[in-house]
From TrEMBL:
It comes from the Bacteria. GO terms for molecular function: glycosyltransferase activity. It comes from Glaciecola punicea ACAM 611. It holds the Pfam family Glyco_transf_4. Residues 180-343 form the Glycosyl transferase family domain. This is Uncharacterized protein. Residues 78-176 form the Glycosyltransferase subfamily 4-like N-terminal domain.
């Protein structure tokens, strides 16, 4: 019988947490059971056929149960018993607040706890969900802490996480699925994939695209995603027929868009509150399908993209060099092809999720 690992996210499962599903589903020998406080239909297809154990399905008063867990670290019997009946070997919590939620669960079930920090859960300063209290408990109660990039590792160290608990480990992507297709759009196409929020920086890309169009009138920009910044971005686009807003896309749609684009742009920025990219999955996926990346050099993006080899980086919020880098890649077939080949190789070497999950299971076994 395979060992079981309880994989926690607050909701089971947001579409934005594709990396959680990809990691859990690619474990070689551990059987994943996805657990959380509430159900979410947005990304549930990503874990189709996998076992789940969600608090709201095992408690008569799920809101009260959630408040007791959040405020007092109390796990009510219904969910506790359901989790205990799974006979799991450990809990793997995603995000710092997930580690906080899982600390009392791990203690009550006598299971080791592993917590992965991804980005804003350690970089953001002033949000209640990410305050020092929650992080301190996650640090103390977790047997080990995974940092998804060296950038996040440094943030954890600066935030007081014990150095001997930190393991830097790339989550990785499915490089068998995200692989070159040989298809390309006939015209120069820039792709943006991400939530339409201020931090993702699509506003700077729209500004830069205006410069690109002056020299490449045939260029197109595709914006894939939804969010509270969408109206602002559409206003900036001002009806430009060469800018398409295609909404949130599933995994297959993202792969198709990336494969056909000439390049992917990730203009994420650091917010005043500290929100910053920990390690951008979009960068890894784009390079894996053979599409180079142009990005702002912020957070862990420089670990995902090798400047001058698999893409081009520039200082954040600076539109002029961003536009220049877009034009350089769009107008040079030779450079683009070189970056494409190097990006595929780098993704397979550093970010192959099957290899990364083998390493993750070694961590699991050490904790068990």
């Amino acid at each position: 019988m395979a060992n079981k690992v309880l994989i926690f996210t607050k909701r089971v499962l947001p579409l934005s947490n594709t990396f959680v599903a990809a990691q859990g589903n690619n474990l070689p020998s551990f059987e994943p059971v996805y657990i959380g406080l509430r159900n979410s239909q947005a990304g549930i297809s990503l874990i189709e056929g996998r076992a789940t154990c969600v608090q709201e399905e095992h408690e008569n008063m799920p809101l009260v149960s959630k408040l007791l867990l959040d405020g007092f670290g109390h796990v009510r019997p219904g969910w506790k018993n359901a989790l205990g009946n799974l006979s799991a070997s450990l809990i793997h919590a995603h995000f710092g607040k997930g580690g906080y939620y899982c600390a009392p669960i791990a203690k009550s079930l006598n299971l080791p706890l592993l917590t992965t920090f991804h980005g804003s859960d350690i970089t953001q300063k002033d949000k209640f969900s990410y305050n020092k209290k929650h992080r301190k408990i996650a640090y103390e109660q977790s047997s080990k802490i995974i940092a998804v990039s060296s950038f996040i590792e440094q943030k954890l160290l600066a935030g007081g996480c014990p150095p001997d608990k930190i393991i830097q480990h790339y989550t990785g992507i499915d490089t068998d699925y995200f692989s070159p297709s040989g298809e390309r759009n006939a015209v120069p196409t820039i792709l943006f994939v991400g939530r339409l929020i201020e931090q993702k920086g699509c506003q700077y890309l729209i500004e830069a695209f205006a410069t690109v169009q002056k020299k490449l009138p045939e260029a197109k920009l595709i914006i894939a995603g939804n969010g509270n910044y969408k109206d602002t971005l559409q206003g900036m686009a001002n009806g430009n027929k060469d800018i398409s807003f295609v909404g949130a896309q599933n995994r297959a749609q993202v792969k198709a868009l990336m494969s056909k684009a000439w390049l992917t742009c990730l203009p994420s920025v650091r917010m005043r509150r500290g929100n910053e990219e920990g390690m951008a999955t979009v960068c890894m996926e784009s390079q894996a399908v053979g599409t180079p990346v142009v990005a702002f050099n912020t957070g862990g993006v420089g670990e995902g993209v090798e400047h001058g080899e698999t893409g081009l980086l520039s200082p954040e919020r600076d539109v002029e060099p961003l536009a220049e880098n877009l034009l350089v890649l769009l107008t040079s077939d030779t450079l683009r092809e070189r970056f494409c080949e190097a990006g595929v190789g780098r993704a397979r070497t550093l970010f192959n999720i099957k290899t990364q999950c083998q390493t993750l299971e070694k961590i699991y076994r050490q904790l068990c």
